[in-house]
Structure formats: C-alpha cells, structure tokens
Amino acid sequence: ESIKGKIKKALYYPVAVVGVAIIVSSILLIYVIPQFEDIFAGFGADLPAFTKMVVGASRWLRANGLTLLIGIILTITAFVLAKKRSRAFAHFLDRYSLRFPIVGAILEKSAIARFCRTLAITFAAGVPLVDALKIVSGATGNQVYNDAAARIREDVAVGHQLQLAMIQTEVFPNMVIQMAAIGEEAGSLDEMLIKVAEAYEEEVNNAVDALSSLLEPVIIVFIGGVVGTMVVAMYLPIFKMAAVI
Length: 245
Fold this sequence. Notes:
There is one protein chain. This protein is mostly helical. It is 86% helix and 0% strand. The protein has 9 helices and no strands. The protein has helices at residues 2-41, 49-85, 87-97, 103-124, 129-136, 143-157, 162-169, 174-186, 189-244. The longest helix has 56 residues, at 189-244. It is elongated, with a radius of gyration of 26 Å. The N and C termini lie far apart (65 Å). The mean pLDDT is 84.
C-alpha cells in the first residue's frame, strides 16, 4: 500500500497541474482572448497568422465548449465503467500501461514486488502454495499479473514446479524466476521471495523519486509554454503596430 500510494502521489501531481493548465487556458480562450479580439477589430489591419490561429481556437471553444465538456465527461465515465465491468478491457489497459516509457517499468516492478511479498507472507504463514497463489491473483494491482498468478496456480495444482509455471506466463524476469527456483530447491521460498520483493520495492522507490524530479521542470516548461503562447499571440499585433508607428 505504501508503494501504491507513492506511485499515485507521483502521478497525481502532473495530472493535477495539467488539469489546472487546461482550466487556465480555457478561461483565457473563452474570456480574455475575445477582449483582445474586439480591440484588434478596431485596428483595421491584418493580424499575424499566429494570432489568427489563437483567435480561431477561441471562437471554436466558445461555440463548442459545452459539447466538448460533455463529451469528455461521458468518455471518462464510459472508460471507468468499462474498466470495472469488463475483465478483458481491464487486462488490455493494464497490459499496455506496462509498455509506457518510465511509468510502465514502475508499474511492472510494483506488481512483481506485490506478487512476491504477498506470496511470501501467506506461504510463510502456513498457507498451502495453491491457496496462497489464489490470494495473490487478486493482490498485484495489475490484471496481467493477477491473471498470471491464476495460471501459475492452475499449473502448480496439477504438480508443476513454481518456477516452471512462472516461466510459462512470460511476464516475470529471469532473476525473479531464478530466485523462486533457488527457494524451492532450498526449502526457503518465502525468504527468497521477500528478498526479491525488497529489491523491487527499492527500485520502485528510486524510480518514483527520479520521476518526480524529472516531471517538475517539464511541467513548469509546459505551463509556461501554454500560457506564454497565448500571451505572445495577443501581443504580436500590438508589437506590429508599434513597429509601423
């Protein structure tokens, strides 16, 4: 839960900032740009192409803003409901989320860490491996790894070794499989899995910290670029007139 919370915190920050940037941009386009447009209309001069583009965006947003907002709300609602009610859709989203640059690696390592730690804790508590895998199949936080745990459980239930069942899923790194194999052979599966979980949790923590440090300047540049673009577009005609005068 600590890792999950840390990942959410790292992702919520840029999402919140981008949301604020969208709101501020919308306010500028809907309420501020029209004021400049009225002023420019009195100039009687041809506006720069960049300014025309921003003014055109302002007109489009004022004409279609409500429709766009309703469409976004309906899309998000449909997306959330589909993810909750459709196992196939949730699997599709989780599988492709693992392919995202940087974030995908964090989600993958987090899922593996939760798989290993949950399995180690339940197995060490005396829960049979097959039953422990049933618990794990709902605890990784990612549908791909939940399904992988369910397939591993089916293979283990018919007598396959854990390491061989993990190989068949094709979602676990070699290091994790090798550590599980060593644990099975040495009779210390829980200890080996705990070591794997600790290693991956440390990697997740470091990756989340690095991601947070990387996002801060990127977000500042993004917001500055969005707002600065509109400001420059509105002042270009004024600068043009001043140069003529």
